[in-house]
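anyone seen this seq b4? input:
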Amino acid sequence: MGKKLIDLAKTIRSKNAGVDHITFDIIFTDRQNYNLVKSSKAITREKIAELYGLPIDQISDFVEYDPGLAIKFTIKRMRPSGSPGERDLLGSQQYPPLFEIEIPG
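predicted toks r here
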């Protein structure tokens, strides 16, 4: 039985990355949990697009950053930050769907 990402990562957050992007950080405190998540392939560009209901080309960046024990990705906003109909000016409320990602283990 696996674990949920929220139980393995120290920090899961999203934030504004300019007018047209939101960036996400998943940061681990130890290499063992980082390597478990990374090797599971439970978090990939394709799986993030599926989770957020986005076309794959909306994921502008996806990085597994070994020195920082972090997985980082950036999505293109559907509307510019602060424009009419845009719901999260700072992009800081977009991370909760990541919590429930199941990591086989």
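The chain has a mean pLDDT of 92. The two ends are 6 Å apart (CA to CA). kinda curious what u guys think
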